[in-house]
Amino acid sequence: MATSKVVEEVGDLFVTERTVTVKLLPSKKSGTRPISWFAKGQVTNLHLAAKDIAYLVGKLRGRSRVVRSLTVMTDRGVHADLEQMGLTRAVKKAGFAVLK
Questions:
Q1: Mean of the pLDDT values across residues 36-41?
Q2: Across-strand partners of 74?
């Protein structure tokens, strides 16, 4: 049985009111998904947010890549409080660590 080489990647997660985008580095794979769980700067449905994040990362990573952490950003800028928005809880619930 051949052993495959596993590559660890870091993902960039970008959230707007209508979409969530993930970009994996160093492979530069990216994907976008429409969302309905982020409104007025808050996560309105934690379970659905975690499910969408996990689905999108899983779709991009494939079999030979491992993603353990995500850098989280929003369209509200770098000074936005991700903890108060609920994004860090959604990312942790999806099974990833949050890089700041």
A1: 93
A2: 15
Q: Which domains does the chain have, with CATH numbers?
A: 7-99 (3.30.420.40)
In sequence order, what E strands does the chain have?
A: 7-15, 19-25, 30-34, 38-39, 42-43, 65-74, 97-99
pLDDT on residue 3: 62
Is the predicted pLDDT of residue 24 greater than 90, yes or no? Answer: yes
Six-digit token string for 86 = 């609920």
Judged against a pLDDT cut of 70, whether residue 2 lies above it is answered with no
Please give the model's pTM, rounded to 2 decimal places: 0.90
Q: Which of 28, 38, 34, 32 is nearest to 76 (CA)?
A: 38
SS3 content of the chain, % helix, strand, coil (to 5): 25, 40, 35
**CA distance linking residue 81 with residue 74, whole number of Å:** 10
DSSP state, residue 1: -
β-pair type (38-39, 30-34): unpaired
